[in-house]
Structure formats: C-alpha cells, structure tokens
Design brief:
heterodimer, A: 1174 residues, alpha+beta, 7-stranded mixed beta sheet, 40 helices, 34 strands, B: 4-stranded antiparallel beta sheet, 3-stranded antiparallel beta sheet
C-alpha cells in the first residue's frame, strides 16, 4: 500500500482532531473521480502520471466502461501539513441523478464536502441537488472550480474574460446557497411561530410538572429570534478570499487557492500576505508606479489583481507549452518556476504531458485541495450540536422529547471521545456487496514476525521431509515450474527473513486463490512449489463457507463515539426503535452481549470484522476509534440497508437518510428459465440489501417488481442481478397494468358534441351484433330496451331478469375504502346464518351502522329508493365495490344488515327460492370478478335482480340451505375439475355428474348438470349481458405525480405530461426558490418510461414522483364507431384516430389470449401473390 | 422463373377457396387468403376485402362458373352477394397459415392464462405470471392441440409443468362440519384427500378447516354427503388460497 503504511493510518485514526471526513459532490462529469485520483496519487497509491486516467475509485467494470461513477466508495489518505499529520477519509460519490441515493449515504457519514463545479458548464441541476443535500445534512462545503483548462483550450477565453466568467460561476453557486438559506430561515420562522404557540399550550399544561420545565431550557437551541435580515449568512458563501474556493484543472494536475499565490507574491513584491489575501480576488488592481494596490479596477479599465498575478501566468504557461510549443520559453519558465522536468516528459510529443509535469510540481492540486480541506472543514470534534440533534431526533419528534439518558448521549457525540467508557455509536449508511475473494483475510497480506518464524519452521520441516522422500520428483517439478518457483522453495532453507516472507506470502496468496477456485489444481497451476499446494489445502479447509458464498456484505459506516473493536457485541437499532421503550425493557446495566428481553426493532449482533476502506482494497483492523469511516463485516443478517449500532440502548436511531430521488421506474423481472425462480428471489433480496435506493416487491399478480431511481440505475441493478446476485439470465419487462370495468350513464351528446337521443339504441344494436357474431343461440336470452336482460337456464326451469346500473362515484369510493368493514360484515352474517352468535364489538357495529347511513345518504332519489335495505351482496370476493340488489317482488330475504337487528329475523318467502339464494350470489361474484371487456374486475356497478321465476318449482332439496351453499360453490369448481365448461350454455354431455342423486326436477335436466350450477352460470351470463347492454367504460389506474421543476423547463414538463395523457391539477411556486411544484394525474399505463422521458426533456431539471392515487373512468367508449353524419365527417369511416380505451382493452385481451377483434391481414389483395415454392 | 418462360399452368396465388355442397352440387367461391376467418369472426366487415370476385364457381382453379339455374335451385336466390355470404358463413375452407398461427397463438396464451389463474408457487403461495408460464410451456415443448378445449389442455399442462418448475394447483380452503358419530371414521377416510388441516375443533360437531386440491373437491363432497346422509356439511371458504396484496422482499 504505497507510501503511507497501515500503521501510520491506524495511529492517525486515534486523533480525531486531525481527521477530516469528506465527500466529493458534483454534477455528473464535472471531475469528481479525477480529482479523487489526484488526491489518491498524492499518497503514492497510484502513479501521478495515471491520475485522472485510471479512475481508481471506479472499481466496477461498468463504471469504467461507461465512464460514470455508480457507487460511493471511500479511501483513507494521509496528508502532512507542516508538522501536523492529517487523516483524510475521502468518499467519492456518483454525480448521475439516478444514483443520488449513493450521495445521500456518503453525505451522512461526512463532516464536510468538496463541491466541484465545471468552469465551463457552471451550476448544473445536480450541483443544486448536492448543495441542497449538503445543506440538509448540515455539513460544510468547500468549492472547487474545476476544468479551468477548458476555458483556455476550448473556449479560448482571455484571462480577463475568464475572470468574469469565474466570477459569474461563483455568483451562481452562492445564489443557490443563498436560496437554501432563505428558504430555511423562512421555514424556521414559520416553525418558530408554531412552536411558540405549542409552547404556550405546553406551558399551560406543564405547570404541574415543574421538573420537566427545569430540565429542558439548557437544550433549547432553536432560538432564531431574528428573521432573515438579522441572521448572519456571510460565512455560508464561497469566496476565494475566505479560502474556501480552489481553482483547478484536475486532469492537468494543477490547482491553487488564493493563499498560495498570496504567499508567492508577498515574497516577490514585498506586499504583506494578509493584504494580498484580501485583494487578490475582487475589484483591485496594482498601481505599478505607486506600488500600491488600489480599488476599482473595472472602473479604471485596469486588469484586476487576480488576472494580472494569477491567471496571466497560467495563461502564458498554457500558451507556451500547449499552443505555441515554444521550447525556449518553456525552458525559461521551468527554470523560473523552479521545477524540474524530466527529459522524457519534455520530449514527449503530446504537450499535455509536459504541461502536467510542470503544473503538478508548480501547483499540485492535491496540495491546494487538501490544505483547504484541513483548514476549512471541521473535524469530527467540531460537530455542531444542532447537527447532532437533527441526527438523533427521528421524524417530527423534537430532541427535547427524547428520554433523559438519550439526551445525555449528545455529549458523547460532541466529545467524540475514543475512551473506553464512551458509548459506541455507529451509523451504517449502506450495505455494499463485494466478492469474498477481495476480503483481506482471503488474500495476501504481510505476515508478522512470529507468524513468519512459525512458517519458516514449518516450511523447513516440510522441506526436510520432502527432501528425504522425493528428491527426484521435486527436482523435476522445479524445472517445469515458472521462474518464481525456486524462490518459493529455496527460501525455506534460507535463513533470511525477507526472502521467506516473500515466499510465504506468495504461497499464501496462491493457495488462497486456489482455494477460491475450489481445488488444489488451481493452486498448482498458479505456478508455485509444493509448499503452495500444502497451503492451499489447509486454507481451503479453514474457509469453506466463504468460498461457497461469493458475495459478502460490508456495512459502510462511521463511528460517532467510542471505540469499535473486532468481535464486539452491539445493539442494532432499526429505524422505528424507540429508546424510551428500549430503556424500559432493558435493565440499566445490560450490555449487548447478554441475552436481552425482546424489544421491538432492537437486535444485538457482533461485529465480526472491521475494515479500513481503501478504494477497491480493504485492510483489516482490530479497532476503530471514533470519528472514522469504516467497513464492517458480518452484519448482513441484522442490517438491511441502514441502521444505527450502539452499545447503549438509550441511543436513538438516526434520522433516516433523505433521498433526493425516490425510486419510480418499475419493471417486472422474470428468469429466462422458470425453474430458476428461487435463485431470482434470493438474488433480488441481496440486491435490495446492497442498494440503498432499489426496492423489490412481489405483487398480487405474482410479478416480481424492481423499482429503481432511473434507467441507468435500472441497468446497473439488472447487471448486478445477472452477474453477481442471482447469476441467472433474466428479462425485464413492463409490469402488468391493472384495469377495471364499469358502466356510465348514457351520454347525451355524441363525439362531435351533437345532441344525440339514440346513443342508447346504438349500444343495443352493438350488443345484438356481438351476440350474433358469437353464434350463440339466443332463444333463451331476451333483451329489453330498458336494459333488463332475462335469461333462462339451459333446462328451462328458471328465468332470471337482471338489470345493471352505474353506481354514483361517491358510493364506489365509499365501498372501496371500507372493504375491511364489509369483510367483517360478511363474516358476521355468515355466523348469524349458521345460527351461531359471534361477538361483535360495539365499535364494529357502530361502523357498520355508519356505513349504512352514509350509503343511504349517497343514494338519494326515487331510483335508489330502499336500495340500501335491499343490498344482497357485495362483489367481487364478497367485499368489492359492486352491489347486488334484491328487487324481486315477493322475495324477502334478510339483508346484509341483518347483524344489526338481532333476534327478529323475518322468515318469509318461498323456501325453494331461498335454497338457491347462494347460487345467485356466486354467479354475481363470478360476473364481477371478470368483466366482459377484458376479464378485469368490475367496479362501481350495481346489478339488481328484477325477476326470478322458477317454472315447475323443483322439490325442495333435502339438504338445508347451508349445504346448498356449498353445492353452489362446488358447481363452479366441479365444472373446472371435470374439465368441461359449465359456464358455457352450449349443450354438453352429462359430464362427470356421476351419481348425483340430487333433488333435481326431473331426470331430463340431468344432462345440464346440477341445477345450482346452472343457476350460477345463468346468473353470471345474465349479469354480463346486462352489463353489456349499457355503455361500458374502462377504468384506468392513475398515479398522482408531483413534479418539481424550474421555471424554464415548465413548458417541456407540460409537453411530456400532455403526450402521456396526463392532466395537471395545479401548480404553485415553492416559497423562497425558483422551483415550481406541479401536481398532475397520469394513467399508470402511460407511466412506463415517463420518469426517464421527463428527465431527458428537461435536462434533469424536473424530477417526478409517482404515487398510486385512484381509478378513473376513461371517457372514450372502447366500442365506439362513428354513426352519425357529423361523426363520419369528423373521424372518417374507420375512426382510425386512436381510441385510448380500445387500445388498452385490446392490449389486455391480447395479453390474456382472449379474442381480439382484429383483422389478421389488413388488405387482402396486398399479400404475397406467388406460391411459396416459386 | 424468368418472366419469358411460357407456362402452361396457371397457379392460383393468394386465393383461398371456400366450398359448400348444396342441392347435390358443389359450389366454390374465391377469397383472399387469411381473410375468411376475420369475416366469420366479424372483424372484417367489408365483403370486397374478402372476395376476389363475387361470382360463384363450380371449380375455382378451372375457372368454371356455376350456372344460374343451379344457383337459384340450391340457394333460392340469384343475388350473388347473398349466395357468397351464405357460402362464406357455412362453407368449408382450408385454414391458411396466418390464420392457423394466430389461432394457435391465442389458444396457447389462453392455456397459459388459465394455468396462471389456477396455480401458485407452493413456496410463496403466489401466482406465476402468464409470461412465465408461457415460457415454461415452451421449455417443455408443449404443442397446442386445436381440437381440444383450452381448459382441458391447461389441466394437462399443469401436470407436465410440475416436473420442471415448482407449481401446484391453488388449494381451496374448505370447512367441514361432521357429526361426531361419523366424524372419526370419516376423518380417516378423508385424510388422504386433504392437503393441510389448518384447524380442528371437536365440539358438538367435528369442525375442520383444511386446504384441498380442487381436483378432489367432488370426491370429498360426495363422500361427506353419502356417508353422513346429509347431516355433515361442507363449505367453501375460498376458492383459491393465495397471498393477497403486495409484499416487500426484504
């Protein structure tokens, strides 16, 4: 590991005041990883020549291929500023909007952030986003303006122009910060006012409890008595003279802060550094005559000091080296700068190499950045109490409301002490998966002296044995092996430690690799001696489990207090854990290693391994003191995505990470081979754990749905699933979109807004046509123009008259929202019917009464008279949003509300009819479960049974009605079980009704199966026909969509919404910012690819969030064809303008394999007219 | 085939012949390929799109037109359009390639849909998606039989799929009420038919809630009715025992 040894870093970790935890944040492609490369190179981990090209922290293959960072990764660096040594825990973060969750996880662990802005592109959407995130997490940012070389080389700006440009960028950044600040102050003032009110109330109430009042005042920090004007915000802004801005070009390896130039020129010109620091940035110029620095450069047309002293020298360097390629001038400059350039570099044909060589010595970017970081960013010790409180108070809970012991932990936070007594508090911000091979215990590592000695002894013994046994064989092998084989074998005899260390290490490494490959053969092929083979065996025995399990999860975490040791047991606190509850349950002195009483959201586990994160490498550690970033192994069982670890049960869980992007891109995932389903499920579980932002779920349809933040994120997740977690072929597709079918009132006007009295007739005509096309014998079916459908059972014993009407929208909504209640209602009814009395809590009864009265109020008028009293059933599944009404004259049955009136059950009505009551209900349930449009459930439809005639009344069956119930159910089942279609009214063979000696009316009907079954089928068909006799509509699931967008892209947002049939509900401006919040509804069917499109069209300035909201009727009739003259005129004969409802309906029908009315060939004569064999 | 080669053989291309025997005579009409089925199903409404010509033939390939007398004898009308419609509706035809393909595709889908509706993954108690079933059916090389009903074939498919993937019929949840006297005896008899007994309650009656394969429902029903002579009863609690709602994988 390069120049800085592990011991040094471990030593540095113990001194929190010299630790800086920071992350690099920026818009995509602004040079985060390149800058990180430069910083890494400064530590000698990679060559400085490769810095910027290697992208060391992008360790994934696809990261390297695509050239974008996809995950945050950490590395620990050492930086010596003067006599002080600093440890810098650097976290590189992705800039792409899809991975902003990774940014959140990185920001949480840091105290400071380097925000990079591209000098050409300026402030970009993600720059704003990361500034906001840094702001929300309360960490201090410093600014790096990167890619200054592009100003010179690409834009060809003069130094003067560049200065104005840089100033503009700085203003932009500060404007964003300012906006964040004002919105916060405004918010806080609003909060404050509310708080005051609450406090007043609390005080009134809290009089009796004076102790509480006494305790809290010290903790009251939210004291923003002043408004915006009085709050000082000057420290927030970036300004070079404050020392928190660095200008750089990471790709060329240079960067500087004003400080550096001030130092240089104060020596040269004899002006005090302090003065120069203040004047180097700003409207100052150097009066050469007076040798004085004067104000007002622009007014006088002079070059500002910054241009004259700083930019000009850089410009001339570029001019000489890259543009003019003037060798003499370069040499002169090199000597005047006092840097040494290797001959190799100066001869190189690419001038950039020479430039980098000069610049990296003259103004090394790592120096400038690291110096600024150490100066300006806080150490873990300086964590603000406000930030601590924000971390500790989950949700809306105020810090004061936490238990006393918890509040005491705050001091532990602030002290950040690494003493033994301090409670350990660790926050895990994400889990990440690495290959087991990459773990340090599974690979080569330098051995300690004792181990070396031991191994030496062993090796010598082995060697001696072997020498004695098969000298011959060894000699042969030695010849056949590659060059390092003698090295491995011979040092065993040798006494020199170094040689042995090398040999053993190689042996160990190869052995391990072989172990992973699963056999000693691999070790042999690795190219070392016999000793390596022996090693292989012993090692592969020692670690069988890690070899099996290729992926290991590590927690990406930071220690906030105390010292974490390997093997230590700690509590894992889930996000919902309540410290008050935990404290109550656990006795005072309980530690994590004792068996504890179960407390919700609290677990204990041990920290098996601790790692120092070094980019793609890991180093194993024994202990980690507070203030450091680390990786923890062995937590995959107890931590899902993020968690808080602590030795004290009083510790509250940290506030959940606030993600800028919520996952919205949904796809259904299936394995290529269906038998690999379990592997997929396991893989998706792993993925869920490894990715902070991905969500996986199984839907009711059995689909496995993956929800990701964007298309790029989706690609990465799929790649991970394919290659790492599931290791199977998978396919991702559009998820299944649910629909509902419903009825509407007959429209009064036609499609061209002409008054239309005959629409109703059209529907009937259509109905008849469909009937004819199905080739159904319709002698049993009779259709009334009023919409009443009468249908006779195949055996002509019973005739049912059913009529369908749409329910008012409010009723549907009410039924939809009270499914639970209806379900209990059904259960109660069931038990009442059986004669058992179920205990119903008065509250449920009350709720049922409430439901009934609200239904009554929502169904007014003559049409619905007594409808509520006559509700027979709900459907589908007995609790859906459809109704069956009993309008049969002379048939009284106890309504669904029978549980309300106990005792007095009216036992009236014909027994015969009552016995088949359940068949009717079952038929209704089946009809509502799958509608005629595309076999989707119905919604908001009311069927009423108008007539029910039984011709020759069948003898009452011997069984009681309860059994009839079962029979009716069984009929439908029997139909499928026997493999014949009971539902189809077509005549069919007797079927396996074997020996059904039921009380059927006459033997002749036997050929139609049991009568109850026929009744179900007839009822179902009657309902379907009644439904079809009315204007039918499809209902689409709708998302509410909240979009945040800036003013300039508002038009495009509307464009995308309009294209996808979205409807804007309202838009408003967010207070204190220039963002608009647009609320819209969008059909779920159109949402696939929506997020991606809107991001693309608005260059990422708008980000939508989708939440399912409701069902909405699609206004167009799926069966609509032009009928009137005007409609023909307007739409043409075929009405080929897309009919949305028809499109959806046909898509669903096609998916389900139902008949789609569609020509196989559009134009008959345009087919291939030659025979096939010609 | 070069265009200058004279051929003495005229091939009918893009022609589908629909034949009908009526009044002892065979009548044929010439239609476009892949169109007759659309006409029959009602998707195609334009007769000109279906017919090559509205004349009725004795033999299409020879170009022999039917005599007027024969037509009026057989059909009772001389209106050719009318006759064509009759022949189209009732005549026999050879199904052309695309028609057959779309038919098979539809029934394949239909079978998969039925299977997906009836079955669950026994591990998760959740249904499989239609897509997955289709893929599994292709994996086992299931070929659709055009002359069998889709439901019948679906049951066959379920049997075959059990060998390659984890699948089973969704169980029915039943509640059995048996009189005490026969309860014990009947329970033993029923045992092989019940998959899972969820609860058992010996009170005045033996009350059992159990999961059964829908295939044995009839048998159980029959058994209970016969053995208890109508005193025992059986009630379907749910037709399909599946997990409801969304579940987050964690």
């Amino acid at each position: 590991m390069g120049q800085t040894s592990l011991d040094k870093i471990i030593a540095l970790q113990k001194n929190p005041s010299n630790i800086r935890n920071l992350c690099i944040l920026a818009h995509v492609d602004h040079g985060k990883t390149t800058l990180a490369d430069c910083l890494v190179a400064s530590n000698g981990i990679i060559s400085s020549r490769l810095a910027g090209k290697l992208r060391y922290l992008d360790s994934r293959e696809d990261e390297q291929l695509r050239g974008i960072t996809m995950k945050s990764s950490a590395i620990s660096l050492h930086y010596a500023a003067g006599e002080k040594d600093f440890l810098i825990n650097l976290i590189d973060s992705p800039g792409h909007v899809d991975f902003s969750s990774e940014v959140s996880t990185a920001v949480r662990l840091c105290d400071g952030a380097i925000v990079i802005v591209d000098a050409v592109e300026g402030v970009c959407p993600q720059t704003q986003a990361v500034l906001r995130q840094a702001w929300l997490e309360n960490i201090r940012p410093v600014l790096v303006i990167n890619k200054i070389d592009r100003l010179i080389m690409e834009l060809k700006l003069s130094s003067q122009e560049a200065y104005t440009h840089l100033k503009k960028i700085l203003e932009q950044v500060n404007a964003v910060t300012g906006a964040l600040f004002t919105s916060k102050v405004l918010e806080e003032r609003a909060d404050k006012e509310e708080e005051k009110k609450e406090k007043k109330k609390e005080e009134d109430e809290g009089r009796e409890d004076p102790e509480d009042v006494l305790e809290s005042p010290g903790e009251q920090v939210y004291d923003w008595s002043a408004g915006l004007e009085e709050t000082d915000d000057s420290h927030l802004y970036f300004s070079p003279d404050q020392g928190n801005v660095v200008f750089s070009s990471a790709i060329d390896g240079w960067g500087f802060s004003i400080q550096q130039f001030a130092d240089i020129y104060s020596q040269k010109m004899g002006i005090r550094t302090g003065v120069l620091l203040k004047t180097l940035w700003g409207d100052f110029y150097l009066n050469a005559k007076a040798k004085k620095i004067m104000k007002g450069a622009r007014a006088k047309g002079k070059k500002p000091l910054f241009v004259q002293l700083v930019l000009d020298s850089i410009w001339s360097l570029y001019d000489a080296v890259v543009i003019q390629r003037d060798k003499d001038r370069v040499d002169k400059m090199v000597s005047s700068l006092g840097v040494k350039v290797l001959a190799r570099d100066s001869r190189h044909s690419d001038p950039k190499v020479l430039l980098a060589a000069i610049c990296s010595q003259w103004l090394p970017v790592s120096q400038a950045v690291l110096f600024m970081v150490c100066e300006k960013l806080p150490s873990p010790l300086d964590m603000g109490s406000e930030r601590v409180e924000r971390l500790m108070s989950v949700g809306a809970r105020r810090f004061d409301s936490l238990p006393q012991q918890t509040q005491e932990l705050k001091t532990a936070f602030l002290q950040c002490s690494s003493e033994e007594s301090a409670p350990v508090i660790v926050f895990v911000s994400k889990m990440f998966a690495i290959e087991a091979k990459a773990l340090p215990q599974n690979k080569q590592r330098p051995l300690t002296q004792e181990e070396l000695a031991e191994r030496k002894e062993k090796a010598r013994q082995r060697h001696a044995d072997r020498m004695a046994a098969n000298q011959q064989a060894e000699a042969q092998e030695g010849c056949s092996q590659s060059g390092n084989s003698p090295q491995t074998v011979h040092p065993a005899e040798d006494n020199s430690t170094g040689g042995c260390a090398g040999g053993c290490a190689v042996g160990c490494a190869v052995g391990c690799a072989g172990g992973c490959a699963g056999g000693s053969a691999g070790g042999c092929a690795g190219g070392s001696g016999v000793s390596a083979q022996m090693e292989t065996l012993s090692l592969s025995v020692a670690r069988p489990e890690q070899v099996e399990q290729k992926e290991v999860f590590l927690a990406f975490a930071r220690v906030y207090s105390g010292v974490v040791r390997r093997g230590q047991r700690v509590f894992v606190l889930g996000p919902k854990y309540d410290p008050a509850q935990g404290l109550r349950a656990l006795s005072d002195g309980s530690a994590a290693d004792e068996p504890a009483p179960p407390v919700p959201h609290l677990q204990s586990c041990s920290l098996d391994h601790l790692y120092l994160l070094m980019g793609r490498e890991l180093e194993e550690l024994e202990e980690v003191p507070s203030g450091n970033v680390l990786g923890i192994g062995g937590l995959e069982e107890s931590v899902l995505k993020s968690a808080t670890l602590s030795t004290s049960p009083a510790c509250p869980p940290f506030t959940p990470l606030n993600f800028e992007a919520t996952p919205i891109v949904r796809v259904a995932i299936e394995p290529k081979h269906p038998s690999e389903m379990p592997k997929l499920v396991r893989g998706m579980r792993l993925l869920n754990q490894a990715d902070p932002c991905a969500e996986v779920l199984i839907q009711e349809t059995g689909e496995h749905v993956l929800v990701t933040a964007g298309e790029v994120h989706l690609q990465r997740c799929l790649d991970d699933l394919r290659t790492r977690f599931a290791k199977i072929e998978i396919s991702a597709s559009k998820p299944i979109i649910p629909f509902r079918e419903t009825l509407v009132r007959p429209p009064k006007v036609d499609m061209v807004n002409e008054d239309l009295g005959r629409q109703h007739k059209v529907a009937v005509i259509h109905q008849v046509k469909e009937e004819a096309s199905h080739g159904r014998c319709s002698d049993t079916l009779h259709l009334d123009p009023s919409g009443l459908v009468t249908l006779t059972t195949p055996n002509r014993q019973a005739t049912l008259g059913v009529c369908a009407t749409p329910l008012p929208e409010e009723v549907t909504r009410l039924l939809e929202s009270s499914t639970e209640l209806i379900r209990t209602l059904e259960q109660v009814n069931l038990s009442v019917r059986e004669g058992r009395l179920m205990d119903v809590s008065p509250r449920t009864l009350e709720a049922i009464v409430g439901l009934k009265t609200s239904l009554e109020s929502l169904l007014p008028g003559r049409k619905w008279k007594n409808a509520v009293e006559h509700i027979w059933a709900f459907g589908p599944r007995r609790y859906g949003p459809n109704l069956l009404l009993n309008s049969v004259e002379g048939y009284h049955r106890s309504s669904v509300w029978q549980c309300l009136e106990r005792g007095g059950r009216a036992e009236a009505g014909e027994q015969t009819v009552r016995d088949y009551d359940n068949s009717i209900v079952s038929g209704f349930q089946l009809a509502t479960l799958a509608g005629p449009l595309c076999e989707e459930p119905l919604m908001g439809v009311c069927f009423s049974l108008e007539t029910w005639d039984m011709k020759s009344a069948p003898q009452p069956p011997h069984q009681d009605s309860l059994e009839e119930d079962s029979n009716s159910q069984d009929a439908s089942v029997a139909a499928e079980a026997g493999g014949n279609q009971m539902e189809s009214t077509a005549a069919m063979a007797a079927g396996p009704g074997q020996g059904r000696r039921r009380a059927e009316p006459g033997a002749s009907t036997d050929c139609y199966g049991p009568f109850s079954g026929q009744l179900i089928a007839t009822m179902k068909e009657a309902c379907r026909h009644a439904f079809q006799a009315r204007p039918q509509r499809l209902m689409a699931a709708m998302y509410t969509c909240e979009i945040m967008a800036t003013a300039e892209v508002l038009g495009r947002v509307y464009g995308v919404l309009g294209k996808r049939e979205g409807r804007v509900l309202h838009e408003e401006m967010k207070e204190g910012t220039d963002m608009f919040i647009i609320k819209a509804v969008l059909p779920v069917a159109e949402s696939f690819g929506f997020a991606d499109e809107i991001r693309k069209r608005t260059s990422g300035l708008a980000s939508p969030q989708l939440v399912f909201s409701h069902w909405e009727v699609i206004s167009s009739d799926p069966f609509w064809v032009p009928t009137t003259e005007e409609e023909y005129l307007h739409f043409g004969e075929k009405a080929d303008s897309a009919n949305q409802a028809l499109k959806y309906m046909n898509a669903v029908r096609r998916r389900k394999g139902l008949y789609v009315e569609e020509k196989i060939v559009e134009h008959g004569e345009k087919q291939r007219t030659l025979g096939r064999n010609k | 085939m070069s265009i200058f080669t004279p051929t003495n053989q005229i091939r009918l291309t893009n022609v589908a012949v629909v034949r009908m025997k009526k009044g002892g005579k065979r009548f044929e009409i010439a239609c476009y390929k892949n169109k007759v089925m659309s006409w029959r199903s009602g998707a195609e409404k334009d007769l000109d799109e279906v017919l090559q010509t509205n004349s009725v033939f004795i033999n299409v390939s020879k170009g022999q037109v039917a005599k007027k007398d024969d037509l009026s004898n057989a059909f009772g009308t001389e209106d050719l359009n009318d006759i064509c419609k009759q022949i189209l509706a009732k005549g026999e035809l050879q199904v052309s390639d695309k028609e057959r393909q779309s038919q098979l595709e539809t029934s394949f889908r239909d079978i998969a849909t039925i299977v997906a509706e009836k079955c669950v993954n026994p591990e998760t108690k959740r249904p499989y998606t239609v897509n997955l079933i289709e893929r599994a059916m292709k994996d086992i090389h299931y070929s659709v039989k055009a002359n069998k009903s889709t439901k019948q074939q679906a049951l066959e498919v379920i049997r075959q799929l059990k060998e390659s993937i984890q699948i089973q019929r969704a169980h029915m949840r039943l509640r059995l009420l048996l009189p005490v006297k026969e309860g014990k005896r009947l329970k033993e008899k029923l045992k092989p038919l019940l998959k899972v007994v969820e609860s058992e309650d010996f009170d005045e009656q033996l009350e059992m809630v159990c999961l059964v394969d829908p295939g044995c429902f009839r048998e159980i029903d029959e058994m209970i009715r016969c053995e208890t002579k109508g005193r025992g009863s059986l009630e379907v609690l749910s037709l399909k025992d599946v997990e409801e709602g969304e579940e987050r994988l964690e």
